[in-house]
Amino acid sequence: MKKRLLGTIAAAVGLTAPWVAVWLLTVGLPAVGYDPALSASLSTLATVAVSGVSILGAAFLLAWAAETAEKDVPSAFAIAILAVLAVAPEYAVDALYAWNAGQFAGTERGIEAGNLAVANMTGANRILIGLGWSGIALFTVFRRGSTDDPAVEDRDGYLRDAVSIDPDISLEIVFLLLATLWAFLVPLNGGIDILDMLVLVGIYVAYIAVVIRGDVEPDDVHTGVPAYLQSFSRPLRIATVVALFAYSGLVIFVAVEPFAHGLEELGTAAGIPPFFMIQWIAPLASESPELIVVAYLVNKARSTAGFNALISSKLNQWTLLIGTLVVVYSLALGEYGALAFDSKQSAEIWLTAAQSLFALALLIDFEITAREAIVLLVLFVSQVLLEFAVIREVVTLPITTYEMLIAYSVVYIVLGLALFVHRREEFRYLVKRSIGTITSAFPGRDRPQHADD
Question: Nearest 5°: phi and psi at 3?
């Protein structure tokens, strides 16, 4: 058994090795020297393949590290760290565009880079919900026949089977709702500024401050590689977790840019507009580690942990990713400045916030049915395909693209508000539960004293 598990770990590391070798030889090592021709000699397709496989291997290492860490830290905190590292590719890609916007501020290239930074960010967030939440929910329901999953509830009726969500996720839902409501205000100033940073990053810091004070749950049952790693002594186990997090994070960081840009080049060669590629194909590539990790957890009948990771990823993307863009932009600019964007990107932010509102409304009763997941998926896919058809002049609409984005936003908002009203009792319970979690993490001074205190 031990030999098989070590072989599994070695296989995952082996998937990352080819691109790590390419990267080391490209950036230059004292022993081997710098050889830029090495990476240049790879075709675009080969670059995408090798870097993509390395991201796949890193995703498995991330998942194992997070599961192993649950023995020593609160599971919510382990999932939060997993979520940050799993979406590290998206941070890297978006930071690149924000940096270019600051470097070339005031020029056409700088303006375009600012718009691309926002487009990439909104595309990533909508993919995470539109494909991630809906796809994983459907995957969880329809794989029930092969592996029993206690999170799936069978119900009579067409597409009424549901995936139950752990009520402990109420804290993440409330914090994500706060970030979503603030996001509606972001476009009103015509850019992402320091106030947005303080509010959004502050929301995430507050969330981490709560979950890190939670209780460790050592009784969670793990199998395979995580169970093996949890058998290590505590110092060795912690060192292994840190090493896995660090190595997989590094692999993702160095592989995502060539992977995303390679996909963009392949798409451009196929006649897909570059702007569309940056908003949709590049984020889809950079979100792949997160989706792989969640699919892995679901496949182990750990659907609750999988959805926790998805929701936590959405929370940190909707807070840290947006909030830190102005920091990167200002560093490149050499002084403080708000990251500006045009009216179309304003509509993209509103649409992304509206989708988030609707998705949260689906979860406030701590479940998502197959029918709800399909609605979420159809709304997302139809908007992307319709916009692509307009860009390619396959169809002609009587309204502008901006108006189409606003129309979809209205649909999401109406559906979301209707669900919040319909499920107002569930929402009250969710908020009450979250307040209880926060107060238990930070007990007041008037807390009753023990007799021997």
Answer: -65, -40
